[in-house]
């Protein structure tokens, strides 16, 4: 009896020591002590076996831990703690579905357990079921308002769902419940940063860092906030110190960096962090710092030493398109990026490719794009691949986008190509070798400085002629690109292009004229639109809307009292900001109506419900404008000086309706008001538009394809004749065309 009592006492003391080891992260010591206790007592005791599993798991011996937890569960089949431990191991082993099933068993036993519900939320997030995850976090907090897992995860999840206002409110409440919890302080600072409350975010970071000055994540977050406040020297100090404390801090906070090209040195510049953050603000229609943002861009581009080669360098080319920056600044930025691309392409060590001109064979055209899918480029260009003259051309498609989702646009493009390859998994050098082995004569980049673009491939020159076309509304800035296919409207200032220009006779872009544009049966009532009001429409994405054009719209609404503005729906915060901006200009916010996301076919058809499409300025509607015109909706645009501000004018010119092109904001407003208040004139103009769809060059896709082929033949002939690239004009004839 005395021996048994002694063993029980020793077991209790040993369990306490094991827990101390686990709590102080001394997992190896905990493992040894658990193993010893199991050896001298009953091996089926719950606690030493369970804690041994915990010690193994935290040492990375996850499979061993899983096997042990399963043994423990056999002896304790209703124990929800063991079930959750098993789920945790399965999650670590990248088996989230199995982890979910295990947690579901625990939840069925204890549906009111806050920890189980919080863990259910976490695993559902990993399974990309955010709305379900949110429900479980709410249940967890209902039963325990201080559950840390739910408090930590719920705010970030709300932000990712576009519910930033609700997310910020949650983070404030969570911090109030646990003011000392460093993770909740971090989340609150992050939510404030994401909502552009920079000064308040900085205050919380500094308060927490006063207590934990060596907290790498908080230091890094402070550096990001200081960058947004343009305190670049202080930001640099924080970012550098955070990286010294934890070399992986960048990947922890910016996980996308883990996928970067290994040849790219990650060096986060406060200035470029600021520029990227301000772009994110523009996408949310937060315009408070817009003028400072534009001024910083002017300074960064025109003083080459002040702009660093950073993580998202290539994204900047697209980010500036909607800003009030002139053609000189845009060209200089593109040249900076192209020079950088050429430098890192050289590091790949790919030897120069050699080519032999042959004017007696079919010309091999290689189209390189990440957008052979339901995307503006894919939608515009869908038909041209199959319409090419296969007696004169062989058409290759190189897809940079990999998706298992069935996409009719992608399938149609693939069918139209003679050869279609998914090359998304190839490295840049492998892709260049692939293109070279295919003996492509003219390689056409249709992505440029947009998402998933691969400009390094072009810098490696895997084909004798390199062309940029359609995907990026601006110059590549690259000396190694031979030609850009343009038209005289968008390229009215050739000095702002680095490439030699090939001018199409009409609009440079094609269109899928097989898209349905028959009269619709849907009504305005279906979209909460007033039946008898004038409906102005702009379905451009949020980042294209800027304060100057928005003020024009508000003045138009004021001049046309019985009218509404129909915009594409965005995150709740965007709609709230635009309504607030309308109210500031004495316009009833309810006159802004937001169109919900619908299937693409329905989206196109509902254009017919509007009266007039009001274009944005610095970055025009392009595919959106073409879609509106094809559906019979007139587009009123104000043509600017830069390329991206002349896209809609290019379309209207090729549609033979230049009367819808204005050149000043006053003209833009006057024309919009004229057509809105003169029903007969508007109806006559719409009838003209409907007829022009079938007679003007814009929507004649076969004609556009023939002109593209003329352009390719001109390029190829010069190359075969040993002549360098020059500017050229495509003329609708098969005779030899002189260079210009």
Question: Overview of this structure, please?
Answer:
The protein has 4 domains: about 1-185, Tetratricopeptide repeat domain (Serine Threonine Protein Phosphatase 5, Tetratricopeptide repeat), CATH 1.25.40; about 260-345, no CATH class; about 350-515 and about 705-740, Rossmann fold (3-Layer(aba) Sandwich); about 525-700, 3-Layer(aba) Sandwich (Rossmann fold). About 50% of the residues lie in helices and about 10% in strands. It has 32 helices and 14 strands. Helix 2 packs antiparallel against helix 3 (about 45-60), helix 6 (about 95-110) runs antiparallel to helix 7 and helix 8 (about 130-145) runs antiparallel to helix 9 (about 150-160). The longest helix has 22 residues, at about 1-25. The model is unreliable at about 1-10 (pLDDT under 50).
Helix and strand arrangement:
Elements: H1 2-23, H2 27-40, H3 46-58, H4 62-75, H5 80-92, H6 96-109, H7 114-126, H8 130-143, H9 148-160, H10 164-177, H11 182-194, H12 198-211, H13 216-228, H14 232-245, H15 249-253, H16 270-283, H17 290-302, H18 316-319, H19 327-346, E1 363-369, H20 376-381, H21 384-387, E2 393-399, H22 408-416, E3 419-422, H23 428-437, E4 442-445, H24 455-459, E5 465-468, E6 483-487, E7 500-504, E8 534-538, H25 547-559, E9 563-568, H26 572-584, E10 592-595, H27 600-605, E11 612-614, H28 623-630, E12 635-638, H29 647-654, E13 661-662, H30 665-677, H31 679-692, H32 701-720, E14 728-729
Helix pairs in contact: 1-2, 1-3, 2-3, 3-4, 4-5, 5-6, 6-7, 7-8, 7-9, 8-9, 9-10, 9-11, 10-11, 11-12, 11-13, 12-13, 13-14, 13-16, 16-17, 25-30
């Amino acid at each position: 009896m005395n021996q048994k009592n002694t063993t029980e006492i020793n077991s209790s003391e040993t369990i306490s020591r094991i827990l101390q080891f686990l709590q102080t992260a001394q997992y190896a010591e905990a493992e040894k002590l658990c193993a010893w206790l199991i050896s001298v007592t009953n091996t089926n005791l719950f606690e030493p076996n369970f804690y041994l599993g915990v010690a193994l798991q935290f040492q990375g011996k996850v499979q061993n831990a899983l096997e042990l937890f399963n043994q423990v569960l056999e002896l304790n089949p209703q124990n929800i703690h063991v079930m959750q431990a098993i789920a945790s191991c399965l999650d670590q082993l990248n088996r989230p579905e199995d982890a979910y099933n295990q947690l579901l068993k625990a939840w069925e036993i204890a549906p009111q357990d806050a920890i189980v519900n919080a863990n259910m939320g976490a695993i559902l997030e990993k399974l990309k079921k955010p709305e379900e995850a949110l429900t479980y976090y709410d249940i967890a907090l209902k039963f325990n308002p201080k559950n840390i897992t739910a408090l930590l995860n719920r705010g970030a999840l709300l932000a990712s769902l576009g519910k930033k206002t609700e997310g910020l409110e949650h983070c404030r409440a969570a911090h109030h419940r646990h003011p000392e919890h460093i993770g909740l302080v971090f989340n609150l600072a992050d939510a404030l940063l994401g909502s552009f409350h920079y000064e308040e975010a900085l205050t919380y970071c500094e308060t927490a860092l006063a207590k934990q000055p060596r907290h790498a994540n908080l230091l890094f977050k402070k550096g990001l906030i200081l960058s947004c406040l343009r305190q670049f020297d202080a930001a640099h100090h924080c970012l550098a110190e955070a990286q010294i404390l934890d070399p992986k801090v960048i990947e922890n906070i910016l996980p996308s960096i883990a996928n970067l090209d290994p040849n790219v040195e990650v060096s986060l510049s406060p200035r470029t962090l600021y520029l990227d953050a301000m772009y994110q603000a523009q996408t949310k229609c937060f315009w408070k710092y817009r003028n400072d943002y534009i001024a910083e861009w002017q300074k960064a581009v025109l003083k080459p030493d002040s702009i660093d080669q950073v993580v998202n360098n290539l994204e900047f080319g697209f980010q500036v398109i909607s800003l009030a920056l002139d053609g000189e600044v845009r060209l200089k930025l593109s040249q900076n990026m192209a020079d950088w691309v050429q430098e890192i392409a050289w590091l790949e060590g790919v030897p120069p490719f050699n080519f032999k001109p042959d004017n007696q064979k079919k010309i091999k055209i290689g189209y390189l794009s990440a957008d052979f899918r339901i995307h503006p480029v894919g939608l515009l260009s869908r038909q041209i691949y199959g319409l090419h003259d296969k007696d004169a051309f062989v058409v290759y498609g190189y897809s940079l986008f990999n998706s298992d989702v069935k996409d009719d646009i992608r399938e149609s493009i693939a069918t139209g190509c003679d050869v279609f390859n998914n090359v998304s998994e190839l490295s840049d050098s492998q892709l260049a070798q692939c293109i070279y082995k295919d003996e492509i004569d003219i390689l056409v980049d249709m992505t440029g400085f947009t998402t998933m673009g691969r400009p390094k491939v072009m810098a490696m020159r895997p084909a004798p002629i390199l062309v940029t076309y359609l995907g990026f509304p601006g110059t590549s800035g690259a000396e190694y690109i031979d030609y850009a296919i343009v038209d005289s409207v968008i390229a009215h200032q050739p000095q702002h292009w680095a490439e030699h220009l090939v001018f199409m006779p009409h609009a440079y872009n094609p269109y899928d004229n097989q898209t349905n544009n028959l009269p619709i049966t849907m009504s305005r009532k279906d979209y909460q639109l007033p039946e008898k009001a004038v409906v102005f429409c702009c379905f451009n994405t949020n980042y294209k809307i800027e304060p100057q054009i928005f003020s024009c719209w508000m003045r138009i609404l004021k001049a046309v009292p019985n009218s509404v503005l129909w915009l594409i729906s965005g995150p709740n915060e965007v709609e709230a900001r635009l309504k607030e901006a309308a109210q500031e200009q004495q316009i009833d916010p309810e006159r802004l109506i937001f169109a919900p996301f619908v299937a693409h076919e329905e989206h196109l058809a509902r254009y017919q419900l509007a009266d007039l499409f009001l274009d944005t300025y610095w970055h025009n509607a392009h595919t959106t404008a073409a879609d509106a015109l094809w559906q019979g909706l007139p587009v009123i645009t104000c043509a600017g000086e830069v390329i991206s501000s002349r896209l809609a004018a290019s379309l209207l010119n090729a549609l033979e309706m230049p009367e819808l092109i204005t050149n000043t904001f006053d003209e833009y407003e006057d024309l919009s008001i004229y057509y809105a208040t003169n029903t007969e004139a508007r109806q006559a103009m719409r009838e003209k538009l409907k007829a022009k769809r079938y007679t003007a060059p814009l929507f004649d896709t076969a004609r556009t394809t023939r002109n593209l082929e003329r352009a390719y033949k001109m390029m190829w002939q010069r190359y075969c004749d040993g002549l360098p690239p020059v500017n050229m004009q495509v003329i609708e004839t098969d005779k030899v065309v002189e260079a210009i």
